[in-house]
Design a protein that fits this description.
By secondary structure, the protein is mainly α. 77% of the residues lie in helices and 0% in strands. Helix 3 packs antiparallel against helix 6. The two termini are 33 Å apart.
Amino acid sequence: MTYDFGHHFTQELRNRFGPDTDSWPATAERVTPFFTIVVDALGVDEGLRWFEAARKAHLRVTEAERNRSYNFGFAHYLDLASGAHENVTLPVLAAFETMKAAYAVAQHENSTDVDVYFEYAAQTCSRLGAARRDRVQQLEQTRARRAAAR
């Protein structure tokens, strides 16, 4: 199912970085298609869970770096936080590999912490999911009213 995630994610980024996209971090344009793939593969509810898992994974990486302790890397922590290893399906594999790629791309710029992208992606999924649930509820109420009117 298509959620037009990219458009809504761009609106979230506009709220953060302002309307002039020329002043945005260069990686913002690059991570958007990756995040769109994640949502298209998993849906908004599962996408939300994955973006939150990615935030946890990134936090573990940065804590390990800050503490100069052993770092198993983003992919390992993402696997644990998302539970990807428990049920490897094609959508899960696509989301996992895409999230790793987005993380690698976002890490190449010092001006923006990748956590900002994960946070706004999660917010986008949350809003899209709520809007979808509201629409489904409205449709069900309309059907119930029509059935009662018959």
